[in-house]
Write a structure and sequence with these properties.
The chain is an all-alpha fold. The chain has a domain of about 180 residues: MetI-like (MetI-like fold, Orthogonal Bundle), CATH 1.10.3720.10. Helix content is about 70%, strand content about 0%. It is built from 13 helices and no strands.
Length: about 280
């Protein structure tokens, strides 16, 4: 762990991404404190300050309904990050389970699971998501569930490949000779050696989930107003982008910074957890 931490901290871009991500998360979590300090929340409409620029009362200005952009940005960032993390947790749980079963069981079970994975990968994911959302309706819970159950395929294939490789190692064969059960071998010997791959895939998956959620909210199939998310903030700002382009600047920059910081951290983790590196 010390070597891995040392390799991670030597990667300047990974450290920069980690610091930036910590700042963004801290600001989004401090949203209730800013609401208490400013005396109103992100849903309060001030019709005397419609589409105004930054001011002492509204640090990032107001939107088309006079709502404070700064508070909506903090709330929207928290919502988007929460959705991204929960989507990855759900998709990782499904992907790791199916990938582990396929990689350990082999033969018929492996073929069935991999053909299911290939079938899911052959369907354009965005069209599938839009179709499901149109059937069940848009909401935060539905968005998390739909994105989670349509994003497990990549992790499943990665975990299967790791299991196929690790199960032939000598320590796994020794555990079999000693009479260890399959559950113990998987949980105590194989899965811990695949944690690095899973961690990197999950970290990068958060960035993809945030982008997908922002896209759905942008077209009205994700988080619904008056709740704020980075996607629906951009959607509301597009109506005045020609006259007030600054209205879309804050959510656009925040999406860029969130995705960039997560990708930097993911790249740093991939290098730090690579077992082929010894220094």
């Amino acid at each position: 762990m010390k070597r891995q931490w040392h390799r991670f901290t030597r990667n300047r871009m990974a450290v920069l991404g980690g610091v930036l991500l910590v700042v963004i998360v801290a600001l989004s979590l401090s949203h209730p404190l800013f609401v208490r300090w400013m005396g109103f929340d992100e849903r309060a409409m001030d019709f005397q300050y419609l589409l105004r620029g930054p001011s002492p009362k509204h640090p990032l200005g107001t939107d088309t309904m006079g709502r404070d952009v700064f508070l909506r940005l903090l709330s929207g960032t928290r919502v988007s990050l929460t959705i991204g993390v929960l989507v990855v947790v759900l998709s990782s749980a499904i992907g790791v389970t199916l990938g582990a079963i396929a990689g350990w069981a082999g033969k018929t079970v492996d073929n069935v699971i991999m053909r299911l994975t290939d079938t899911m990968l052959s369907i354009p994911r965005l069209y599938l998501i839009i179709a499901i959302v149109a059937l069940v309706g848009p909401s935060i819970n539905n968005t998390i569930f739909i994105l989670g159950v349509t994003a497990w395929m990549g992790i499943a294939r990665l975990v299967r490949a790791e299991f196929l490789s690790i199960r032939e190692e000598d320590f796994v064969l020794a555990a079999r000779v000693l009479g260890c059960s399959s559950r113990r071998i998987i949980g105590r010997h194989i899965l811990p050696n695949a944690v690095g791959t899973i961690t990197v895939a999950a970290t990068l998956g958060v960035a993809g989930a945030v982008l997908t959620e922002s896209g759905l909210s942008f077209i009205g199939l994700g988080v619904q107003p008056p709740a704020a998310s980075l996607g629906n903030m951009l959607s509301e700002a597009q109506r005045v982008v020609s006259t007030d382009p600054w209205a879309s600047l804050s959510p656009g920059v925040m999406i860029f910074l969130v995705v960039l910081s997560i990708n930097f951290v993911g790249d740093g983790l991939r290098d730090a957890l690579d077992p082929r590196l010894t220094r």
